[in-house]
Specification:
Largest sheet: 4 strands, antiparallel
CATH class of the largest domain: Alpha Beta
Strand order of the largest sheet: 2-3-1-6
Strand content: 15-25%
CATH superfamily of the largest domain: Ribonuclease P, Pop5 subunit
Shape: elongated
Radius of gyration: 33 Å
Distance between the termini: 108 Å
Order of helices and strands: HEHHEEHEEEH
Number of domains: 2
Helix content: 55-70%
Number of strands: 6
Length: 172
Amino acid sequence: MTFAEMTPYIVYIFLVIVCVATILYLTTRIRELRRKIVFLKKETNELKKILRQKVEEKTEKKKLRKRYVVFAILTEQKIEKKSLEEAIRANWVRFFGEKSLIKADPQLIYYDPSVKRGVIRVAHLYKDELIALMSTIKKIGEADCLLVPLKTTGTIKKARKLLYSLRKDLQK
């Protein structure tokens, strides 16, 4: 067999050697990358734990401030203060659970049935939950109604001022 006849075999052998070398290189590279991925997963899990601990420490150390949500009730019927407070608490437990109810401690501070407006006090971390909850209350006792949050403040004094000054068209 001459060299000219052997050339295709040599090229074939050379290509096989190159392919094998490439496969070996890629497998070692894949192993290295897998090790790095495992290491990074461990690191991210540790960072998540540290971050979770920091958040818990901040929420535990932080003094719970109060927020006052001024609201209006759109309804034709008269609504009692007690039934309104019961509806808020019952829906809170239904949507967010008793543990959240205890932490948030929503309280109906003031309610004026003549203008159908009131003020609810809640922990500042749960203000958004209260506002979302208000949109879900469609019935209080036997009365069909709609709770509309008007404004959120940090002081009860400001809330009482806002009670009668905001949106006179909702007093109907």
